[in-house]
Predict the 3D structure of the following.
Amino acid sequence: MVDVKSMANPLFLREEELRQGIEMLFFAYRDFTGEPDAILSEIDLGRAHHRVIYFVGRNPRITVTDLLKILKITKQSLSRVLSQLVNEGYIEQTTDQGDRRKKLLTLTEKGVDLEHRLTENQRKRIARAYRAAGAEAVQGFREVLRGIIDPSDQERFEIVTPTMPVPRRGKG
C-alpha cells in the first residue's frame, strides 16, 4: 500500500495536484453513476429520481421539507420528480398524524427493490476501493469528502474510525 501522507503535503498543494483531485472526482462520479443511469434510463427515470429514491430509502418517513433540505432543490423540481415516483408506485406519501401539514415519504416494496438495484454496484465499488485502500486511507478519504461538503451538512457525517474485517486464515 502506498503511504498517502508522503505523497502530498497538504500545506503545499500545487495547482496540478488540486486539478488532478477535481478530475478524479469527475471520473469517479461518472463511473459511480454509470450503471444506475443505465438502469434508470430503461424505466424512463433520471438521476433526480435516483437521489430521491436513495434518500427516502435511507430516511423512511422523511418529510418533504427535510428531503428538500438534503437535496437543495426547489419545491417545484421535487414535486415533478416525486409525483412521478408516487404515480409509478415507488414511493408512498402519507400525512403525519401529529401534524397534518407534513407529508411523509416511504419507499414501497417496488421502490425498495429499485433502490437495491441502483445501489448494488455502487456498494460493491465503494467496498472494493475501501478494502484496497485500507482503514487509514478510508478515514482520510472520509475526512476529505466531509471537508468538501458544505458546513451546514457536515454534522450529518461524524468521522469515525472504520473497522476493517480481519481476513480469515485457512488451516495451514
Remarks:
- The chain has a mean pLDDT of 89.
- The radius of gyration is 20 Å.
- Residues 40 and 46 are 6 Å apart (CA to CA).
- The helical segments are 4-7, 15-42, 47-58, 64-71, 75-87, 109-133, 135-148, 151-154.
